[in-house]
């Protein structure tokens, strides 16, 4: 990790600004920058100007401090020091800094994992307390149905009780799954096999009807480092959702092809694009209303009468754990398209 360096004179004119500094701040170097006021050169980065402006006013200069650059969504760690002449008189100042964005992201991921672990423990206790009485309700309702076989009204009421108890139990189970930290069992995975398995599993959950399912896997598609079981869960959920939305007719197209994940612009020329695989699940169903598209991944948001609202939230959580991303586009005329991008080699296993 290289250092950015900015040096300036007592009168505020720039004496030095290296290439790394320009790169981190997202600025373009100009031959005339040296000698100009640093406030002019850095006019687009007001947070930095404020820090540098205090170089000769503060009694104690910041050492190993952090600063968030909101416009760039970056975090830098920096040290600001005065430069003095032989008589001890300040004649300038210099800032050394590093881009800590990726370090911050890893730390935030760890903090989130710790919070979810605590929440998971609490949810496990709640689930245990709820599952026992729910199981009791189901058993007793089933026994009662056998004792009143000739009462249609009682049978109808008891059927409703059983249905609601099973739904409540499903919500508890999915909530528990959502709050638990994702633990990947990473292995070399053939996405063609994952897709075929997911179609079969989706058919076992939802009636497919006359829906045509077409798959297209690019020849020579590389195997990826992933959790085979959890990826199957991702695509099973997406395909099953499509089955439910299409009411037994239409077409689903599932394709897998090579792709790349572009490096952060701040690291252009340093980190090459990451080899990846793009999987699309597209249907020609009714689509998702535009005002709901941004909410479908939110926990407990659902448009289904009996849905828990956790399916797509869990999908995104699994994709995030693979260092991938999931996007959705939908229109009433063309249906819905989910795009899942996964790196060929994931670094997630290093932190789990």
Describe, in plain words, how this protein is organized in 3D:
By secondary structure, the protein is α+β, with helices and mostly antiparallel strands. It has 3 domains: 4-99, Beta-Lactamase; 104-179; 187-351, Heat Shock Protein 90 (2-Layer Sandwich). 39% of the residues lie in helices and 24% in strands. The strands form 3 sheets. The chain has a 5-stranded antiparallel beta sheet, with helices on both faces. The protein has a 5-stranded mixed beta sheet with strand order 7-9-10-12-11. The radius of gyration is 28 Å and the shape is elongated. Mean pLDDT is 85; it is low at 348-352.
Fill in the keyword field for this structure.
single chain; 352 residues; alpha+beta; Beta-Lactamase; Heat Shock Protein 90; 3 domains; five-stranded antiparallel beta sheet; five-stranded mixed beta sheet; 8 helices; disordered C terminus
